[in-house]
Design a protein that fits this description.
Length: 164
């Protein structure tokens, strides 16, 4: 897909699959990330067209226990968090991926927690009685999440519009 310049935008598992397919290393995280957590742009991210009009630090929804441990050769690491050092990757102007989630709607937390493995991950990371707090935190950030998701999408589309 990259050789043919086919646009790719991967999120979470898509981020991990893209990195793995291109020669990166993906594995179990030392520490799961579940909750609302800050993402920081790296120096490369601060100048990347993928992150135009984005703050250098912004909140995101996290819900993963696997991560990209080593980026593929030629990929730019664009964002990080204290727990997961590869939160976003850029592969030239055609492929972009994020470990974090911004594509949140009102029912996302409830939809995901209905999956037994996701509920177990949430309870293990945050505690058995923290679902309501997590739901509230996600709702409190949803406007920003959706604004940032739209910005990333628009940036990606601008970079790939001639190829897609």
């Amino acid at each position: 897909a990259l050789a043919r310049e086919i646009p790719i935008f991967g999120v979470c598992l898509g981020h991990q699959l893209l990195a793995s397919a291109l020669g990166g290393v993906v594995g179990k995280s030392k520490q799961s990330e579940v909750g609302i957590m800050d993402i920081s742009l790296t120096k490369a991210g601060q100048t990347s067209d993928y992150f135009t009009r984005m703050p250098w630090v912004f909140p995101s929804l996290q819900w993963h226990s696997a991560e990209v441990r080593q980026s593929p050769k030629g990929a730019a690491i664009l964002a990080e968090s204290p727990v997961c050092m590869i939160q976003a990757l850029g592969f030239g102007p055609h492929a972009f991926s994020t470990q974090f989630h911004l594509e949140i709607i009102d029912t996302t937390v409830d939809d995901w927690v209905s999956v037994p493995a996701y509920r177990e991950s949430l309870e293990k990371s945050l505690g058995k009685n923290e679902l309501d707090n997590f739901r509230t935190a996600a709702a409190n950030h949803i406007v920003n999440f959706q604004q940032y998701a739209r910005t990333l999408w628009d940036n990606w589309r601008k970079l790939t519009r001639d190829e897609g």
